[in-house]
Please model this.
Amino acid sequence: MVPALCQDCLRVWEFVDWETAMQATCTCGGQICSCPKCYRRIQSLHARRWEAAQLGLPNGVVLLGWNAYDGAQFTDLRREPLKHD
Ligand SMILES: [Zn+2]
Ligand SMILES: [Zn+2]
Model:
């Protein structure tokens, strides 16, 4: 089986082969990918190594919870500087 990762919600899917995986879309409508990079991200998720850099998330986006079936809950700690007038 080929594991594949949704780029939006980080659900993990299993496919019979690589071609099927690359053509699939997630139930959330997100893109599914099964490249070696996403394979490593899946392993990081399972190992609870949830740092943004490890998962390819933007800095300041924090993963609060995750499982393979429901995907991820994020919080966005990025701050936009206030514009002074
Ligand atoms: Zn998804
Ligand atoms: Zn990928």
Observations:
- The pocket of zinc ion (ligand 2) is lined by residues 33, 35, 37-38 (CB under 6 Å).
